[in-house]
Write a structure and sequence with these properties.
This protein is α+β, with helices and mostly antiparallel strands. It is built from three helices and ten strands, in the order αβββββαββββαβ. It folds into two domains: about 55 residues; about 150 residues, 3-Layer(aba) Sandwich (Protein Transport Mog1p, Chain A). The N and C termini lie far apart (about 140 Å). The N terminus is likely disordered.
Length: about 220
């Protein structure tokens, strides 16, 4: 009887010991996995903290490069009493709208989304001061968006051309505006516009390029 009890007890002890050993092995594996997870998690946290605290260096803003054609001009003669030299890479179109006066023209640079709008008025008696002041008021409406407005007088008695050229700096809708007159018969106003939202940083090369065409127009202008 005792011997049987001893065998049962001894077998139970071995079985219990085996269960303890197996449980200990499982716990050891769990500890190994947990330690590995803890190391990986700590590494990820450290990387995140470094990334958040590292100084951020913004990339400089870039703009598309624009290739402009060589300067070349041809004379354009209007249906009114004036002519000038226009760029060969432009199209001079008569504005045909019911609400505009005769002899209004658009010098279009279709490839670049730019237009020089020209308006002509016959100069009646005592209207020169009124017309020139109207243009000045239109120019200074851009002061809300402009950083500066520079007025450059135009005085060319050899070709009977007088007026003002306005450089409008900043993100204004029009960057260049001008008027010219012979003081007796005609009055011309011109303004440069782009078919995009104004952005002086990206448009600066185009503004400078087409401003040269405006200056050339003024220098070659003739009253017929």
């Amino acid at each position: 009887m005792y011997f049987k009890y001893y065998l049962l007890t001894n077998a139970g002890s071995r079985k219990l010991k085996s269960l303890y050993d197996q449980q200990g092995e499982n716990n050891m594996k769990k500890n190994i996995y947990f330690n590995r997870f803890l190391r990986y998690y700590s590494a990820v946290v450290l990387l995140c903290l470094y990334a958040c605290n590292a100084p951020v260096t913004p990339k400089p803003r870039g703009y598309l490069r624009i290739d402009f054609p060589d300067k070349e001009y041809k004379r354009f003669t209007s249906n009114c009493n004036f002519s000038f030299e226009a760029p060969v890479y432009s199209e001079v179109d008569l504005v045909k709208l019911s609400h505009v006066e005769p002899c209004w023209y658009d010098i279009k640079f279709r490839e670049y989304g730019a237009t020089i709008h020209l308006t002509y008025k016959p100069l009646h008696k005592d209207k020169l001061g009124t017309y020139s002041e109207d243009i000045r008021k239109i120019v200074y409406k851009h002061i809300v968006k402009a950083d500066d407005i520079i007025e450059l007088p135009i005085n060319k008695p050899e070709i009977d051309v007088y007026g003002f050229l306005y450089d409008i700096k900043g993100n204004a809708a029009s960057s260049v505006n001008f008027y010219i007159t012979d003081s007796t018969t005609g009055f011309i106003n011109g303004s440069l516009y782009f078919n995009v939202q104004p952005n002086i940083d990206s448009l600066a090369p185009a503004i400078d390029f087409f401003r040269q065409d405006i200056v050339h127009l003024i220098n070659t202008f003739e009253w017929e």
